[in-house]
Amino acid sequence: MPPSPSSSPPSLLARLASSASLASRLSISRLFSSSPPAMEPTEDSLRKALAGRQAAVDAQGNAVRALKAGKAPKPEIDAAIKALNDLKIEKADVEKRLQAAVSGGAGDGALTREAFRHAVVNTLERRLFYIPSFKIYRGVAGLYDYGPPGCAVKSNVLAYWRQHFVHEENMLEVDCPCVTPEIVLKASGHVDKFTDLMVKDEKTGTCYRADHLLKDFCNEKLQKDLSISAEKAAELKLVLATLDDLSADKLGAKIKEYGITAPDTKNPLSDPYPFNLMFQTSIGPSGMLPGYMRPETAQGIFVNFKDLYYYNGNKLPFAAAQIGQAFRNEISPRQGLLRVREFTLAEIEHFVDPEDKSHPKFSGVADLEFFMFPREQQMSGQSAIITQLGEAVSKGTVNNATLGYFIGRVYLFLTHLGIDKGRLRFRQHLANEMAHYAADCWDAEIECSYGWIECVGIADRSAFDLRAHTEKSGVALVAHEKLAEPREVEKLVIVPNKKELGLAFKGNQKMVVESLEAMGEEEAFQLKAALESKGEAEFLVCAMGKSVKIKDNMVNISKQKIRENQRVFTPSVIEPSFGIGRIIYCLFEHSFYTRPNKAGDEQFNVFRFPPLVAPIKCTVFPLIQKPEYESVAQLISRSLTVAGVSHKIDITGNTIGKRYARTDELGVPFAITVDSQVDVTIRERDSKDQVRVSVGEVASVVKEVIDGHRTWSDVWSSFPHHTSASAED
Amino acid sequence: MPPSPSSSPPSLLARLASSASLASRLSISRLFSSSPPAMEPTEDSLRKALAGRQAAVDAQGNAVRALKAGKAPKPEIDAAIKALNDLKIEKADVEKRLQAAVSGGAGDGALTREAFRHAVVNTLERRLFYIPSFKIYRGVAGLYDYGPPGCAVKSNVLAYWRQHFVHEENMLEVDCPCVTPEIVLKASGHVDKFTDLMVKDEKTGTCYRADHLLKDFCNEKLQKDLSISAEKAAELKLVLATLDDLSADKLGAKIKEYGITAPDTKNPLSDPYPFNLMFQTSIGPSGMLPGYMRPETAQGIFVNFKDLYYYNGNKLPFAAAQIGQAFRNEISPRQGLLRVREFTLAEIEHFVDPEDKSHPKFSGVADLEFFMFPREQQMSGQSAIITQLGEAVSKGTVNNATLGYFIGRVYLFLTHLGIDKGRLRFRQHLANEMAHYAADCWDAEIECSYGWIECVGIADRSAFDLRAHTEKSGVALVAHEKLAEPREVEKLVIVPNKKELGLAFKGNQKMVVESLEAMGEEEAFQLKAALESKGEAEFLVCAMGKSVKIKDNMVNISKQKIRENQRVFTPSVIEPSFGIGRIIYCLFEHSFYTRPNKAGDEQFNVFRFPPLVAPIKCTVFPLIQKPEYESVAQLISRSLTVAGVSHKIDITGNTIGKRYARTDELGVPFAITVDSQVDVTIRERDSKDQVRVSVGEVASVVKEVIDGHRTWSDVWSSFPHHTSASAED
């Protein structure tokens, strides 16, 4: 199923990065765009070959017509026709190879990928792993419900996330509201920059994402119109590759140039314009306090930095974490669980001294080896390569050990969940994808039928976020370090004259004083110069929402040499951010397989979830409907509940084979079948191997394997094997 | 601290119940209103006594003045003055008793309650259990963040909820989005009826909850103005008791009558008008699809009934459950965590055959005894009484065994968390609190410093919710039961004539057909009568938003005898709904206590959380800063991590007493102190008892006690005791 790792074009991030420092901050909560299908290297030559064959067919066709017109002898005409047919066959062959090349690189690979996806999604929806929300009201695009097994998988993934990250590192977990006042998201940049470009059907008003329409047009042209020239194909591919870099104007121009119209009506389209992706609302009854549903959970951590730093005993480094809902009002959601309007994020903000980004536990992950895809490999058209993490850090490919530590921990997290190592890579952001302040950024990308999907972003965001909130709020989000010995530094000193300010501004005095004290060096010396030359100056007090007149007796601004006992600085933030729904969807694809029954006339679906992830750990079946067996099953069920093993008891009269098939399709790793009052069998899902265990012992054996304290092969070698007389399939 | 159980006035529910069938549905997600302080029975007589004393003082004052004016002999005047002073003292005494009576019933009980609350809340905010959200931007009323210990407590409570309810009963847990399209909440009634009455300051536009202003006025008058007559006091108390029943008009009239003005400006107020409490937003870019942030999680379950019923093998009973955020745009939030704009709900919808509400596991809870407060006790002014649950069900006080089973399970859940049994009661809704369709409804109320707080609602809502969505969506949310033998029933048969309807309504034919088929019996026979008498009739087609003309050849309506093999019915819903934030806040109050140090000159705060709830289970301290001790501490920390015991290691140089005090204040049940490389001590938080355990064994001993596999008293009797030489305090 898996196409091999291939290079990915710059993602949506590029556009953001070029437009604003916001870029990287927005990355994980909005991007994750899948790459268009990779193009085979032969495509270009095939297009040229096809043009040549077409010319040959045309020429030979003319020749045949000329022979016929000139009443040439029949054998001569027949020979020419045969030559024409041979040329047509040759052309058809090239056409076929070109078709294969453009539709996914591996013959009918694209088709296979879609068929595979169809099989997985069909199983997932039929067994209620997830379903479109509000189905009885025809649903809403981009909103999904997790049904019982999906909800259990999600809760297992989150519990493991909490154990693997929060508990292991003693992170400070917080839980903040989704409703967020505008000022917070103004400071973070989301109010101004969290947008996608949109076009409207000029007659019906239906909205489309501008880049999606252009992308669909190019892909369609490349895949379905085999007659386009190699030059045209190259142009379209360039558009696809630079799609995320296009400004509104350029995107609009391309849409006009290609004559793209509204897909549903063929009506003309408006020019592209930005649409903010946050769900807006209003807090309280007055209508005066605009708010948004948070687009990410990180801001809730940043605004609490001061309290969290204090909670941690005023010591760095420390990490805070949050799991919660985030919201993004997509223009036109696609790709099922991968691009939705409401999703669960799990985010970590690790605060660290910018002068010391080492990590005490890095050695514990340094030996890990996995696919990494550094900037250089991407730029030179190479593939991801298996790299030792320690080497990547020591060579400087990964910027620092803390970033490297989290890359390693994310690798362990994802592979323990059951993500296939061969379809997981860490891709470094290209220079144009990153904001100017970011030190480095790596995405954990997982390959699924939609291509390579960004599922976790791991970014060193330097001091950007804390500085933005310090500026907007006037509260210093900084850390302190006691110096071994005092040092002398030159420092800006602002001394407001509270008496004069009080006389001039009365009740507003405090706001003016705070604004004066919050000035940066440049602003302060501009004010000083103005006061010295004119005796007074206009000064903007944000908290009052207006400028006031400051006189030269109201504030003293100077630079003084000061002996400092401590260093005050804004910490750097290293942020691993997890799109939980995306990870789960990829996990579904990586875990899914089908196998035939014994007769070979039917295919059964299986999810090979590890016990950690499986929605239910065990099922209990009486082999046949018989009161004695049923009461043994109830007894075992009770022991499993006491042991905390989530399970399901199935006393329906279905055949045992059917019942196995039904639970395999839910990914249940073990089944206990009751066929006596003394011993029962435990069946392992993937091998279908069965052992016999006593009724009293069975719950604890299953518990041990589930908890990872015992392996199945150990169980297999410790208990008598069982060969089922009842045909399983 | 706890005032004893007292009767509570009808809650806000009353208003809703009287206005609409929506009432009970809205209860848990909006109400939980605390009762005003209970009035002592002596208050009325004290007011009368005070009026008598005042009259006596006035009369004696006049007598003194008359004596003085008549130049009476000095001894006579002195005697009269002494009598006057005695009367004044008597009056002051009555005044004092009245003051005590009105301010909480127990002398300075109200003051004590507030002081207690202040101490708890101060500790909670200082240790970051919770804090106002977006503090650096001056916060937003009604939004709170859980900091690290609060977040851990919340996650422990939710994990236990999942274990105690979802896993124990094999409930079908789902996870639906918060963003909800309007049509769903139109069907549930929230769009039309989920409102509070609001008044506006006519000059500034500031908004207030109308009932809050009237309530504050009455309480203030009753508590601070001792001169009002007993009659006036009775009137004000009647207003308070019927506050929730007042219509907008009556509420407005009372506000005018009492001359109530805007609290901040004393400006006049507008008439009260309804304000919808849902946060509104818009889904997608068109602005054409209104949506709301869900006010409760239950609707996500109801709309999925059909799929869930199928998932459960088309069998009743079964329960679905959901944990998630809910939103309520309060007009003016109060009472900290108890009335907030965003909160976590955990809801269960147990679907059951209305003809059989027995429960197979009821016997497991029938012997439980706790405070119940049935309707009759409330109406006759009695208190809650300790009742055996089995008796309450068998006597019919509780409507049915399934409802009773959940009451018992809720009792076990809350008390296992650490809620004080003496301050927990199950209060039955009064007849006027319940919607007409509800069979019965009980609230688990917990007493805290704000009074009795509704924390869990347990309602038998009959078939209301499924019917509402069946009607609106046209999808039948029903269950089927195979009958043992077929039965003959008379049934409404509606046969639309599709040909005629097609000719008349063209593209709308389908909507008309569906509307005709969806008619109830009464409506159908009215239509039949109209068609027979007049040959045609107006007929409302909801989906088209208008009435159409139906002719008598377009539909055939009759009653026919039909042999049925199955019974088709709408299941009843029994809904336990948990306000998680409220439970947690009450738990904080019930767990908090202070104790003096040995010198008795300082008070230390302690939370007596059971291990199940405690944010951290254990702390590890080296007794003094010494590398050997520190490495033992690290070793123990590692074993605790492996054992999955959340803990904190504290290697600061603070005194051991200070470190104990700091973790007692977080409610950490055990502390391991390292004072040797062989043995260490384990200290239990509440008893402060210490035992000595070997380094190798300590993690597993703590783990056993945390998991409930061993009690502390067993540990205490198994290991040598330790008497600390270092003064703990």
From TrEMBL, chains A, B:
The WHEP-TRS domain, residue ranges: 49-105
Organism: Eucalyptus globulus (Tasmanian blue gum)
Quaternary structure (record): Homodimer.
E.C. number: 6.1.1.14
Pfam (any one): tRNA-synt_2b
An annotated Gene Ontology molecular function: ATP binding
InterPro entries: aa-tRNA-synt_IIb, aa-tRNA-synth_II, aa-tRNA-synth_II/BPL/LPL, Anticodon-bd, Anticodon-bd_dom_sf, Gly-tRNA_synthase/POLG2, GlyRS-like_core, tRNA-synt_gly
Name of the protein in question: glycine--tRNA ligase
Any one of the GO CC terms: cytoplasm
